[in-house]
Write a structure and sequence with these properties.
The chain is α/β, with parallel strands linked by helices. It contains twelve helices and nine strands.
Length: 322
């Protein structure tokens, strides 16, 4: 803590959509309380801090750093190591930092194929000289450098040591506030714990009634109007609730939208996608192998369905590089 008794707090945004930054702002009037107990010493999205400012801090200068976003580039990785060095507690804040999340689905491809699609083949591209990003370029004023775009998206814990994991896409503000209160009070659980969540599944928080019916057809959400009283899974809508840690308050299923899995796996589950796949397999009502193939073939985008938030953290990790 500083001489004024306040915590020194840092926040950083790596490869993510920015929703975690908005989630912090969603604390609303509680931000005034945060200001009473903490000095923000690094938050580049909101204040004019430079990397050189952080580099000048003594090691362990920050009491806590909330790091959101996956590791997509060399810049992300550099900041992960730097903020680890400068922070007493490093928190993987949100699903991207925790599991890789949506950016992690790029692990189905490699850098070359992504660049080819984005800069050369996309229908909206106007690039007659076929220019693609380079890590260095000579300008009249001198050589400029941009971060290296990695082949593989990684989680924060895959590049540096992480103290706690706060799940969610984004984390919900009551959970964020609960974690801040625990930090201020010095009542954090053992290192490596998932915080801002609970030990149950989303199904335990869900209002829908589960009857564990067998399924002969899976529906995409727009293809069916669900019964608001019955389990979405029982109605043929794949819901990640059985394979997802609770703590969000089942916000999606409250409005009859299936859970997509953003709070990560429940305790003692090492691969969330495999757990959800097992749940799906258990309800398929097929008399023959041909029947089973037909039913399963109706699941479009299997990787995006089963590993929407967790591909980099999964046992699969990524598609094989040639």
């Amino acid at each position: 803590m500083g001489q004024n008794g306040k915590l020194k707090l840092g926040l950083y945004w790596a490869a993510s959509c920015g929703g975690c930054e908005i989630a912090v702002v969603e604390l609303r009037e509680k931000l005034l309380i945060v200001d009473q107990v903490a000095d923000i010493v690094f938050w580049p999205v909101a204040t004019d801090f430079k990397y050189k400012d952080v580099e000048a801090y003594p090691d362990g200068y920050m009491d806590v750093c909330f790091f959101n976003g996956a590791i997509r580039t060399s810049e992300n990785e550099h900041l992960a190591h730097l903020l680890r060095k400068k922070s007493k507690i490093l928190v993987a804040f949100g699903s991207c930092a925790y599991e890789g999340c949506i950016p992690g689905l790029a692990n189905l491809f490699d850098r070359e194929s992504i660049f080819r699609r984005v800069y050369l083949e996309s229908e909206s591209v106007d690039n007659p000289n076929k220019v693609v990003p380079q890590t260095t370029y000579q300008m009249p004023e001198g050589e400029i450098h941009i971060p290296k775009f990695y082949n593989t998206v990684k989680t924060l814990a895959q590049v540096t040591d992480v103290d706690y994991f706060l799940p969610g896409c984004p984390p919900q503000d009551p959970q964020i506030w609960a974690v801040i209160e625990a930090i201020v009070a010095g009542k954090l659980p053992p290192k490596g714990s998932v915080v801002g969540a609970n030990e149950k599944t989303v199904c335990d928080e869900c209002k829908h009634v589960r009857e564990e019916k067998k399924i002969k057809k899976f529906y995409r959400y727009h293809e069916i109007i669900p019964d608001s009283t019955k389990c979405l899974f029982d109605q043929g809508i794949i819901c990640a609730g059985p394979a997802t840690r609770g703590g969000c308050g089942a916000l999606c299923t409250k409005v009859d939208i299936p859970c997509r899995g953003c709070y990560g796996p429940p305790p003692n589950v090492c691969d969330q996608g495999a757990s959800l796949l097992a749940a799906v397999a258990s309800v398929v009502d097929a008399d023959t192998e041909e029947d089973a193939r037909r039913i399963v073939s109706e699941i479009l985008d299997p990787v995006g369905t089963f590993y929407r938030f967790s591909l980099p953290a999964s046992l699969l990790h990524r598609a094989r590089l040639s």
